[in-house]
Amino acid sequence: MTRRPLILALLDGKGAVFLGVLASLAVLVPVSNLLLPEASPLHVPTYAVSLLGKYLSYALLALALDLVWGYCGILSLGHGAFFALGGYAMGMYLMRQIGPRGVYGHPVLPDFMVFLNWQELPWYWHGFDMFPFAALMVLAVPGLLAFVFGWFAFRSRVTGVYLSIITQAMTFALMLAFFRNDMGLGGNNGLTDFKDILGFPVQAQATRVALFVATVTALALGYLVARYMVTSTYGKVLVAIRDAESRARFLGYRVEHYKLVAFTVSAMMAGVAGALYVPQVGIINPSEFSPANSIEAVVWVAVGGRGTLVGAALGAVVVNTAKSWLTGALPELWLFALGALFIIVTLYLPKGIVGTLAEWRDKRRATVSAKPAEVAAGAAE
Amino acid sequence: MTNAALTNTVLYLDGVSVTFDGFRALNKLSLAIAPGEMRAIIGPNGAGKTTMMDIITGKTRPDEGEVFFGGMIDLTMLDEAEIATLGIGRKFQKPTVFESHTVADNIRLALAGERSPFSALFGARNRIPEERIDAVLSTVRLTEHRERLAADLSHGQKQWLEIGMLLAQDPKLLLVDEPVAGMTDAETAETAHLLKAIAREHSVIVVEHDMAFVRELGCKVTVLHEGSVLAEGSIDAVSANERVIEVYLGR
């Protein structure tokens, strides 16, 4: 193989467009929000900046899911759990930043602990007052759960629908656990009422813009990591496992190790997505673990196009934009619309938006390149 | 069998039995393959041919009996990936290739070498010389299909690609399950030619129903019946064996 510079090897056409769009968003949205007057038609209001930031954190979750589902055939119906765990790690940091400014004014304990008559901070809350520790936990907690879960599941060769069911059970069990007040994580109210992040007020316009830029950057980095993985031989083995798992095994590949790496990396990406989501929406509660959330993420990926990375991110933004609009206009219809969308995509657009576009392009190229041959054949007659 | 005889085999099965839900798939099966030997295994459906392959490649564990590779490695203690790395390649009955990959990439993934995820992400697995791929492709005569998707190949071409993948693994022993099922006569002849060429440097076990094909291979034949060896010898000898005719050929 001729060796190309890494960055060129990573960027195909749609990847370049994708990163170009992200780079423009990272520049134009802050400029428009902070510098243009509010009356200007090009002004992006601050609420929209956060809304878009939320969509892009969903896009990172979709990207993570596509890495395991699109490339390795692991249909996780529990990826929302990794997202929520990353979100809780960030939420715990934000709670500790409140310090004595809570409603009850306790110097250390968050309000909900005071309310429950807790006397001291549970052991697992220690360290979350430091951002680097919290950031580490954003990666480590989802990563560790995925590693342990994957270790047992993949070693026991649980695949297909059975694996999907146990991932679903995992997120459901976590949801029930996090609903309990005894967990010390705010019970069904979750964690909210955040004040500062890294010393800046969470609600301030500039902070919101900075969080948006951080989300765009994380999405771009997540894309590059995933893209590197799938373009390396590792990615080829993942696809090989998806297509013919036993063939890969009889060729001497340790299928369970390959799956474990992808699953763990994917869970860590989902954790980062959750951590960026929480300060932008201002709350994290156990409903983020709800199985429906994980299934919704699967629909995003299916709509955008499995195994395309860019498509997954696009699907997340498109479906969530539709959701925001529809839940505003006709709230009772949303779930039906989501179900219909999934059925339509499965039946008529199995490759999703990006996959179908790529197919059309290939077909057009094939006809274009076939034409000169036809002409030559015609001339010969 | 004495130790000296054992060490002189590439594969040695002794008294292997396995039962699934009360059905005895293998019944005290014993078999020895010499280094460089080609062996054809025939037998009616349910004779235990595929189960035998499953045992050798680590997919199924025997209830009792010994399975040794190269005279000293106990295969019953190892899993599929370990056995493949030791040098046993297996071709499935239904051609099984990586359909979304090109022909060249199928061979690339099969080529012997480091197989860890780390190596595939950052290491030597990404630097496979193209010449190694070309060499295998010319052996199985797929050079001109190099950049096609495996999914687009014909049935016969997929069979050859899978044999090519086996060769790329550089195994000491190849297990080939019904390589000519569904092939045209021309393809069958070419496959026989290919397997004979491979057998010059490797030990090969071929499981096959097609008697004409087995005759073409011109090697020693083992007849399985109800999980054990019914007869062994040249194709003419076993075809003449009365019990073989009774259980298999006569039907």
UniProtKB/TrEMBL annotation, chain A:
It is found in: Cell membrane. GO terms for cellular component: plasma membrane. The keyword Phosphoprotein does not apply. It comes from the Bacteria. It holds the Pfam family BPD_transp_2. CDD domains: TM_PBP1_LivM_like (cd06581). Signal peptide: none annotated. Keywords: Cell membrane, Membrane, Transmembrane, Transmembrane helix. It is a multi-pass membrane protein. InterPro entries: ABC_transp_permease (IPR001851), ABC_transptr_urea_perm_UrtC (IPR017778), LivM-like (IPR043428). GO terms for molecular function: branched-chain amino acid transmembrane transporter activity. The chain crosses the membrane at residues 16-36, 56-89, 130-154, 161-179, 209-226, 257-278, 298-321, 333-350. PANTHER family: HIGH-AFFINITY BRANCHED-CHAIN AMINO ACID TRANSPORT SYSTEM PERMEASE, SLR1201 PROTEIN. This is Urea transport system permease protein.
Automatic annotation (TrEMBL), chain B:
NCBIfam families: urea_trans_UrtD (TIGR03411). PROSITE patterns: ABC_TRANSPORTER_2 (PS50893). InterPro entries: AAA+_ATPase, ABC_AA/LPS_Transport, ABC_transporter-like_ATP-bd, ABC_transptr_urea_ATP-bd_UrtD, BCA_ABC_TP_C, P-loop_NTPase. The keyword Magnesium does not apply. It comes from Chelatococcus composti. GO terms for cellular component: plasma membrane. Keywords: ATP-binding, Nucleotide-binding, Transport. The keyword ATP-binding applies. Residues 11-251 form the ABC transporter domain. GO terms for molecular function: ATP binding; ATP hydrolysis activity. This is Urea transport system ATP-binding protein. Signal peptide: none annotated.
